[in-house]
Design a protein that fits this description.
The chain contains three helices and four strands. With 116 residues, it is of the alpha+beta class.
Length: 116
Amino acid sequence: MKKINILGTTYKVYLNVPSYKDPQLDGLFGYTSFHDKRIVVADVRTVSGWESSSDEAAFDTFAGTVRHEVIHAYLMESGLAGSSNPVNCWALNEEMVDWFAMQMPKLIKTFNELGV
């Protein structure tokens, strides 16, 4: 377990949790619990259908899931989730969060190249 600071709130982060040890991971690679400030990311190879995934696929999926769940926590702690339209909940939209999670490494690389 690791502890991280997200906009002043401490989150406990559990990484590589066997999916059979956490019922909330059923069919998921990870989740963020806003009520108890917890991020849980599965051991990818314990998720049904991923048992024989390659090392590269398992790591890429794991890393993407960590980024995805951290972005959920940032949106929640910044107040955006509570302010989003309750019908569409844009700040909790999985596609939008996935976009940020997938593009984050590229954005960081670009910013580093520019020295900002």
